Amino acid sequence: MNMQKNIAVIRGDGIGPEIVEQALLVLDTIAKKYGHTFHYTDVDMGGCAIDKWGDPLPEEMLEKCKNADSVLLGAVGGEKWNHVPGHMRPEKGLLRLRAGMGVYSNNRPAKIWKQLSEASPLRADIVEKGIDFIIVRELTGGIYFGEHKTEEKEGQAIATDILVYSEEEIRRIGRIGFETARKRNKKLCSVEKSNVLDSSRLWKKVMHELASEYPDVELTDMLVDNCAMQIVKNPAQFDVVVTENMFGDILSDEASMITGSIGMIPSSSMGDTKNGLYEPIHGSAPDIAGKDLANPIGTILSAAMMLLYSFDMKEEATAIENAVSEVLDEGYRTADIMSNKKNCMQIGTKEMGIRIADKL
Ligand code: NAD
After folding, report:
1. Whose CA is nearest to atom 12 of ligand 1?
2. Ramachandran category for residue 155: left, alpha or beta (phi over 0 → left; psi -120 to 50 → alpha)
3. Does ligand 1 lie within 6 Å of residue 298's CB atom?
4. I need a labelling partner for 60 at 20 to 30 A (CA). Which of 96, 145, 183, 188 fits?
5. Nearest to 73 by CA among 88, 94, 49
């Protein structure tokens, strides 16, 4: 079925414009091949918006994102804006965008590309079994958003951070977990600390209530300390992991580390609507900006996630992943993933984009 979609495009700062350009080339190629139409609306956010508008995310730019079918972001920030007042920092634009779009779920795949397996710090026999899972992390609740205070009592300082979750907050992130599993291998692992925490016992109860709505998805439970061990011991067991904010913060960094390269990892942030925010996990890499050195694959794979999760274009998303895999098979590498194995050839940002698009 031919579809028309409006995509808000935030090129941002540093390497942002270079990597987004390659993702758009790939999206245009997909549109041509499958008969879709993608309309792009340029949105200024971050340092470039501060320079142009005196604001890291002017209200009308946020509106453009809210009115789109989805949002693609490169990266924002850089040394030039490090000294501006806090509320004007480029990253504030990103926080306002997330809040304004109402996204409460951050989804990060941890996938090892067999061609880059030597970049993983894990033992070869563990990597060989395959690493391909996704962590769905609750983003706007839990201990990071509870009350924080430090008081003086009986001669010593006492610090308190409160961890709160409502049933509804758990249910909505749980649904994203189940829906994500449905689009993958239908295995969902709910991670909590129900042997100690009340919020985790509620989490577990709600997940099991939801399970009856998703009989096609297999739900398992795991304690967070065990999960941290299992991610390095046997990552092949996971398909989708769903967890609360702080556990997800820590586990998703652990998971991205075992795959090796920061330039390869996409992410999505979702809320109640299909309009999601898609971006690579890395920053604006000012050290290599404008040098045709950046790896555009994290952004290209973010575009593939957009096709799958916002537009339900599974075949198109898979085509992009396969194209990336074929280009890696042929030995083409950007500088960050270059190895001295024979048959590997270093290419620039643009050539990587063109080669991936050509494979489609
Ligand atoms: P970074 O992710 O930008 O860079 C870390 C290192 O990884 C650098 O050596 C960089 O060259 C390399 N790298 C990152 N992406 C790469 C890619 N696609 N290809 C090849 N190499 C890549 O992190 P940083 O240096 O800590 O931050 C730089 C700026 O980015 C800061 O202003 C920071 O605030 C901002 N930042 C933005 C986001 C975002 O927009 N979502 C996220 C993190 C950091």
Report:
1. 285
2. left
3. yes
4. 145
5. 94
46 lines ligand 1 (CB under 6 A): no
Cα 278 to chain centroid, rounded? 7
CA 353 – CA 347 distance, rounded (Å):
10
pLDDT at 323: 98
Q: Indicate which residue of 51, 253, 287, 358 is catalytic.
A: 253
Cβ–ligand 1 distance for 288 under 6 Å, the answer yes
For the chain (length 360 residues), average pLDDT per consecutive 10?
A: 94 98 98 97 97 95 98 95 87 90 94 88 93 95 90 95 96 96 96 98 98 98 98 97 95 88 92 95 94 97 96 96 96 90 91 98
Short-list 144, 45, 116, 114, CA closest to 261: 116
DSSP character for 300?
A: H
**Selected catalytic residue, list 42, 51, 198, 225:** 225
Specify the residue with its C-alpha closest to ligand 1, atom 13: 285
- The response to whether residue 89 sits with its C-beta less than 6 Å from ligand 1 reads no
The pLDDT of residue 85 is: 86
Domain boundaries, the chain: 1-104+269-360, 121-259
Cα 335 to Cα 261: distance, rounded to the nearest angstrom: 11
Residue 264 pLDDT: 93
Concerning whether 144 is annotated as a catalytic residue, the answer is yes
Instruction: Specify whether 272 is catalytic.
Output: no
Q: Residue 88: what pLDDT? A: 85
16 lines ligand 1 (CB under 6 A): no
Give the atom of ligand 1 at the shortest distance from the alpha carbon of 78.
Answer: 32
193 catalytic residue (yes or no): yes
- Positive or negative, the Cα torsion across 120, 122, 123, 124? negative
Choose the CATH number for 1-104+269-360 among 2.30.40.10, 3.40.50.720, 3.40.718.10, 3.40.50.2000.
3.40.718.10
Q: Which of 96, 249, 262 to mutate to test the pocket of ligand 1 (most atoms within 8 A of CB)?
A: 262
| Residue 243 DSSP class | E
